């Protein structure tokens, strides 16, 4: 049985029909649960986060699927838009050898489809991180701080969904949970391998974003230093003319150049010549 955002009344009826534990029912109605697997006396309760990538906003959205797994029943409760489970039934019908595992086959198909969505999201985030790295290390002056922060937040969203599943999926792969036959272990092992791979990708992306952020700050610091050197160089060049004008503007009586016929031209030539010399010196030293 599959339910999408049922209300409390509907869930109460389903719980009475299949004998679901009330604590698990309560958790299934809340869409902010941590991914987990909880064995009860006569059922297994599984919570898995669904993830999908919104291209228009470069964001990762999340939902939740709760699975009640019993000896002869499976009930799924989906919160949020998330991954559609309509294709799970068709997939199981196409792979008839899975049906022999009973309700565990449905749990495997649901987890496999959701984890495949994790890989798609991770691939999209990898592309975004590559774009950020190219922007950070380009020659252009870019403002990547906000983009890096947003991506780190999205990576954290994926980590919160994937990381808690590593140990439960390994236990599924070892068939240590009730209602999970040993014959299904190989299929759950494939899901566990995908979860591990996505977890490694997420950790790598987070590390790359931290490195890109540090590099971006370092580039900003270097650019500011270069700006200060250029400003200082131009101030020094302007100071030469100010110095010459200040000296000859003191109007002392005994300053021969003040009454010299070519004094004005000499002062201008001195200002221009000294400025050109300083400009050349700063240019050679890389300050301009």
UniProtKB/TrEMBL annotation:
<keyword id="KW-1003">Cell membrane</keyword>
<protein>
    <submittedName>
        <fullName>Magnesium and cobalt transport protein CorA</fullName>
    </submittedName>
</protein>
<feature type="transmembrane region" description="Helical">
    <location>
        <begin position="231"/>
        <end position="250"/>
    </location>
</feature>
<keyword id="KW-0406">Ion transport</keyword>
<keyword id="KW-0813">Transport</keyword>
<comment type="function">
    <text>Mediates influx of magnesium ions. Alternates between open and closed states. Activated by low cytoplasmic Mg(2+) levels. Inactive when cytoplasmic Mg(2+) levels are high.</text>
</comment>
<keyword id="KW-0812">Transmembrane</keyword>
<dbReference type="GO" id="GO:0050897">
    <property type="term" value="F:cobalt ion binding"/>
</dbReference>
<dbReference type="GO" id="GO:0000287">
    <property type="term" value="F:magnesium ion binding"/>
</dbReference>
<dbReference type="GO" id="GO:0005886">
    <property type="term" value="C:plasma membrane"/>
</dbReference>
<dbReference type="GO" id="GO:0015087">
    <property type="term" value="F:cobalt ion transmembrane transporter activity"/>
</dbReference>
<dbReference type="GO" id="GO:0015095">
    <property type="term" value="F:magnesium ion transmembrane transporter activity"/>
</dbReference>
<dbReference type="Pfam" id="PF01544">
    <property type="entry name" value="CorA"/>
</dbReference>
<keyword id="KW-0460">Magnesium</keyword>
<dbReference type="InterPro" id="IPR045861">
    <property type="entry name" value="CorA_cytoplasmic_dom"/>
</dbReference>
<keyword id="KW-0472">Membrane</keyword>
<feature type="transmembrane region" description="Helical">
    <location>
        <begin position="262"/>
        <end position="282"/>
    </location>
</feature>
<dbReference type="InterPro" id="IPR002523">
    <property type="entry name" value="MgTranspt_CorA/ZnTranspt_ZntB"/>
</dbReference>
<dbReference type="InterPro" id="IPR045863">
    <property type="entry name" value="CorA_TM1_TM2"/>
</dbReference>
<keyword id="KW-1133">Transmembrane helix</keyword>
<comment type="similarity">
    <text>Belongs to the CorA metal ion transporter (MIT) (TC 1.A.35) family.</text>
</comment>
């Amino acid at each position: 049985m599959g339910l999408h955002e049922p209300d409390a009344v509907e869930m109460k009826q389903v719980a009475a029909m299949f004998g679901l534990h009330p604590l698990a029912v309560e958790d299934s109605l809340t869409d902010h649960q941590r991914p987990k697997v909880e064995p009860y006396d006569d059922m297994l309760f599984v919570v898995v986060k669904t993830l999908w990538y919104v291209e228009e906003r470069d964001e990762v959205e999340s939902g939740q699927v709760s699975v009640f797994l019993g000896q002869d029943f499976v009930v799924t409760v989906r919160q949020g838009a998330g991954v559609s489970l309509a294709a799970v039934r068709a997939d199981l019908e196409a792979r008839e050898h899975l049906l022999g595992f009973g309700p565990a086959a449905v749990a495997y198909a649901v987890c496999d489809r959701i984890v495949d969505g994790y890989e798609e999201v991770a691939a999209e985030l990898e592309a975004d991180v590559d774009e950020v790295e190219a922007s950070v290390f380009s020659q252009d002056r870019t403002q990547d701080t906000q983009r890096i922060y947003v991506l780190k937040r999205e990576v954290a969203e994926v980590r919160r969904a994937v990381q808690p599943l590593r140990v439960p999926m390994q236990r599924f792969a070892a068939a240590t949970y009730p209602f999970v036959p040993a014959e299904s272990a190989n299929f759950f092992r494939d899901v566990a391998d995908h979860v591990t791979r996505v977890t490694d990708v997420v950790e790598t992306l987070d590390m790359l974003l931290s490195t890109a952020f540090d590099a971006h700050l370092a580039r900003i610091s270097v650019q500011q230093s270069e700006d200060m050197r250029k400003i200082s160089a131009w101030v020094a060049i302007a100071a030469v003319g100010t110095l010459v004008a200040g000296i000859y503007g003191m109007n002392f009586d005994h300053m021969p150049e003040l009454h010299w016929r070519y004094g004005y031209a000499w002062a201008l030539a001195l200002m221009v010549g000294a400025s050109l010399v300083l400009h050349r010196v700063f240019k050679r030293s890389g300050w301009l």
